[in-house]
Design brief:
Number of domains: 2
CATH architecture of the largest domain: Alpha-Beta Horseshoe
CATH superfamily of the largest domain: tm_1862 like domain
Helix content: 40-55%
Order of helices and strands: HHEHEHHEHEEEEHEHEHEHEHHEHEHHHH
Number of helices: 17
Distance between the termini: 15 Å
Pfam families: B12-binding, Radical_SAM
Radius of gyration: 22 Å
GO molecular function: 4 iron, 4 sulfur cluster binding; catalytic activity; cobalamin binding; metal ion binding
InterPro entries: BchE-like (IPR051198), Cobalamin-bd (IPR006158), Elp3/MiaA/NifB-like_rSAM (IPR006638), Methyltransferase_Class_B (IPR034466), rSAM (IPR007197), rSAM_horseshoe (IPR023404), rSAM_sf (IPR058240)
Cofactor: [4Fe-4S] cluster
Oligomer: single chain
Number of strands: 13
Keywords: Iron, Iron-sulfur, Metal-binding, S-adenosyl-L-methionine
CATH class of the largest domain: Alpha Beta
CATH topology of the largest domain: pyruvate-formate lyase- activating enzyme
Structural class: alpha/beta
Largest sheet: 6 strands, parallel
């Protein structure tokens, strides 16, 4: 579990731009019931309530917005985040208790909204003649101008690494870049964050030093592709190596963006785990989702991680366009060849703003109105049914248990026991990790 960096970045930006003129409180509502969130809102008596919205958690976000309006009818309810950005008109058309949707990157738009809601750009709202959009002003070009996220409202002691080499340690998330130059069809990241933009190496190292001085020794770089610019990655690693302080960390990246030199320096700089977005071991499926990686790239990356004693995660998506029993077999065979430290699995989900979402609508698998139903996750069932996907996910979990020996079987059994009192489908999802 990591800190809600987005909301805390908004708080920091507002405090910096409007010193002494605005009070901002951040509530991490993860694990809280709607009533508990509403009670916190009641205590604070806000004029504006901003809610980050994710597709799977949209119902909870809307419930909080509704409860807020019931308690404080004059308070402005503001929704933001990836999901709200792509579904702003639908939200405002169907949920009268939502006043405004903030679209795109939040820091500048949020501050501008607080200063002048009548003229701010990057919002969707109700006008006298219906839903109106003030065009997003674009991406923040210089990320170094942003202050460090303000976590002063959070109980940071609860953000602990739960697995892997850092298990049990306090975990601090660090963002070194935003955006992605790729267009994988299952992902909606680029449609919000745009092409790649970097924070300076100095800024990154300064932020690590800041949290090191406050007791943190384990970090998670949350960039979509940490090693996208290998020269920059090398600079960051050398900066960490040359410091008297020693930290360990994890990151995520692509298999075609690592090599022997980079991984050697990453290991020396404290990297202990890399999560690779492999998604499939089938060239057919990799092409279908526009992944632009090959099985040879994948095998090389995991072999190099082994050589440099860095734990690896093989991320899999089941059910992509073109998925068949044969492509799933190719993925299982590739996993056996790569022998990763960990396997993470997911059934393919369709997120607004992604290519898969558009393809699902084009093929008539669902319509945009599915978001108005009680269904939490919207799965793309073009190649496999949801039941077939979950059966395959169980097979991958069993494969991981086989590869890890007795520890893997113990872990698998514990996952099942944790949800043994729940419904059969929830039990299945507990076993497969989704």
């Amino acid at each position: 579990m990591i800190q809600p960096m987005g909301l805390c970045s908004l708080k920091a930006a507002a405090k910096e731009a409007l010193p002494g003129k605005v009070q901002v409180k951040v509530l991490d509502a993860g694990g809280l019931e709607t009533g508990e969130v509403a009670a916190e809102v009641f205590r604070y008596e806000p004029e504006v309530v901003g809610i980050t919205t994710f597709t799977e958690a949209r119902h909870k976000a809307l419930a909080v917005a509704r409860a807020t309006k019931n308690i404080f009818p004059d308070a402005l309810t503001l929704l933001g985040g990836v999901h709200a950005t792509h579904t702003a008109t639908q939200i405002l058309d169907n949920y009268p208790f939502v006043d405004v949707v903030l679209i795109g990157e939040g820091e500048k738009n949020f501050v501008d909204f607080l200063i002048s809601p009548e003229t701010v750009k990057g919002i969707v709202y109700r006008g006298r003649e219906g839903i109106k959009t003030r065009k997003d002003p674009g991406m923040i070009k210089d990320l170094d101008t942003l202050p460090f996220p303000d976590y002063s409202d959070l109980d940071l002691s609860k953000y602990i690494e739960t697995e892997g080499p850092g298990k049990g340690q306090p975990l601090m998330a660090i963002e070194t870049s935003r955006g992605c130059p790729y267009n994988c069809s299952f992902c909606s990241s680029r449609s919000v964050w745009g092409n790649i933009r970097y924070k300076s190496v100095k800024r990154v190292l300064d932020e690590i030093d800041y949290w090191f001085d406050r007791g943190y020794r384990y970090f998670s770089f949350i960039d979509d592709i940490f090693t996208i610019d290998t020269n920059r990655t090398i600079e960051i690693c050398r900066g960490l190596i040359n410091r008297s302080t020693y930290v360990t960390w994890k990151c995520q990246t692509r298999t075609d963006r690592v090599d022997d030199r980079v991984l050697n320096l990453m290991n020396l700089a404290g990297c202990r785990l890399i999560a690779f977005g492999v998604e499939s071991g089938s060239p057919t499926v990799l092409d279908a989702i526009n992944k632009k990686e090959t099985p040879d790239d994948i095998k090389m990356a995991f072999e190099l991680c082994r050589q440099h004693k860095i734990e690896s995660v093989f991320n899999i998506i089941v059910g992509s366009p073109g998925e068949t029993k044969d492509t799933l077999k190719e993925t299982r065979n590739l996993i056996k060849e790569c022998n990763p430290t960990h396997i993470a699995t997911a059934a393919l989900r369709a997120y607004p703003g992604s290519g898969i979402w558009n393809l699902g609508i084009e093929k008539g698998l669902f319509t945009e109105d599915i978001l108005l139903t009680n269904q939490e996750s919207i799965h793309y069932e073009g190649s496999l049914s949801i039941n077939q996907m979950y059966r395959e996910l169980i097979k991958f979990r069993i494969l991981q248990a086989q590869l890890r020996g007795w520890r893997g079987w113990v872990e698998l059994i514990r996952m099942g026991l944790r949800t043994v009192k729940e419904t059969p489908m929830k039990l299945v999802r507990g076993v497969v990790g989704r």
